Amino acid sequence: MTEWLAGALDGARLHLWDDQAQTPQIRALDGADAQTVIAQEMDRLGAERAALAGAEGAVLRIPCKPARPEGSAHQLRLLPKLVQDHPACEVTPREVALIAGLLKARPQFDGVVAITGETTLWAQISAEEVVSITRTATGRLFAALGGGHPLPPDAAFEAALSETRARPERLMRELAQPMPKAQSLLGALIGAELCDTKPWWLGQQVLAFGPFATALSHALSLQGVAATEGAAEQAVLAGLRSYLE
C-alpha cells in the first residue's frame, strides 16, 4: 500500500511522487483537473493522504508563513497561494512548496529566494515568513527572442551583463540589433533584471532555483552577492512532504 502521494503542477503537467520514489512521474494532464487525477491515484494505490501544489487552496496575504494547507476529501491537502496587494503579485502553490522545502531544511534562512522559469519570483524571507515579493519576465523574453535552452555563462554573457548593468536604458536598442548569441541575450536580460530588482538582492544572500539559476547566481556573484544555486525539484518534494507530516 502507498502511504502518501505528493503532486506539483508545472504548466500542463503534473509531477507526482509517492512514498517510494525520489524521482517524480510526469503526467500530461491533457485538460484533466490535477485534483481529480491525484484523488484517483489515491484511490487506485490506497494512499491515505496526499499534498497537491497547483489546485486552488487557501489564499494568504504577505507577509505570512507558508501555512498548513487546507484539507479536502480523501485527506488531500491543497497548498495555499500567497498574495501581495501592493504591488500586486502572487506566489504560486508550487513556489510555496519550494519555499517550504527550503525552510524545512534551513529554518534560520534569512535572505532572498529567486525561483526562475517563464518568470522569476524574487521572495524576501525573514523569520520563516515571506516578507515581500516581485516578479520579472526574463525567462519569457528569452524564449520569445529565440534564446533556446540556457547555456552556462561565458565571456559573452559577462560582457552583455556588464553593458546592460551600466546602461540599462540601452536594452531595447541592443535587442533591436541582429540576433545575438544566446549567452549575450541572456546576459543582457539578466543585467536589466538586476537593475530592476536591486532592493531584493543588494546586501542579501540569495538562493536561486530553476532553469536560469546558474546564470542568475553567476551574475549576482559578479556583483559581490553571496548567491548559490539550489535543487528545485528536491526542494518542492521536501516542501510537499512537510505538509504531510
Summarize the structure in words:
By secondary structure, the protein is of the alpha/beta class. It has a domain of 95 residues: 2-keto-3-deoxy-galactonokinase, C-terminal domain (Nucleotidyltransferase, domain 5), CATH 3.30.420. The protein has 9 helices and 14 strands. A 6-stranded mixed beta sheet has the order 3-2-1-4-7-6, sandwiched between helices. A 5-stranded mixed beta sheet has the order 12-11-10-13-14, with helices on one face. Helix 2 crosses helix 9 and helix 6 packs across helix 8. The longest helix has 15 residues. The protein is globular. The two termini are 18 Å apart. The model has no long low-confidence stretch (mean pLDDT 92). This is 2-dehydro-3-deoxygalactonokinase.
List keywords for this structure.
Nucleotidyltransferase, domain 5; 9 helices; five-stranded mixed sheet; alpha/beta; DGOK; 2-dehydro-3-deoxygalactonokinase; 27% strand; single chain; globular; six-stranded mixed sheet; 245 residues; DGOK_C
Question: What do we call the CATH topology of the domain at 135-229?
Answer: Nucleotidyltransferase, domain 5
Low-confidence stretches: none
Mean pLDDT comes to 92
CATH arch. level architecture of the domain at 135-229: 2-Layer Sandwich
Organism: Thioclava kandeliae
Protein name: 2-dehydro-3-deoxygalactonokinase
Pfam families: DGOK
What's the layout of helices and strands?
Layout: E1 4-10, E2 13-18, E3 25-28, H1 34-45, E4 49-53, E5 59-61, E6 70-71, E7 76-78, E8 81-84, E9 89-91, H2 93-105, E10 111-115, E11 120-126, E12 129-136, H3 138-144, H4 155-166, H5 171-175, H6 182-196, H7 198-201, E13 205-209, H8 213-222, E14 226-229, H9 232-242
Parallel strand pairs: 1-4, 4-7, 5-8, 10-13, 13-14
Antiparallel strand pairs: 1-2, 2-3, 6-7, 8-9, 10-11, 11-12
Helix pairs in contact: 2-9, 4-6, 6-8
Protein name: 2-dehydro-3-deoxygalactonokinase
Pfam families: DGOK
Organism: Thioclava kandeliae
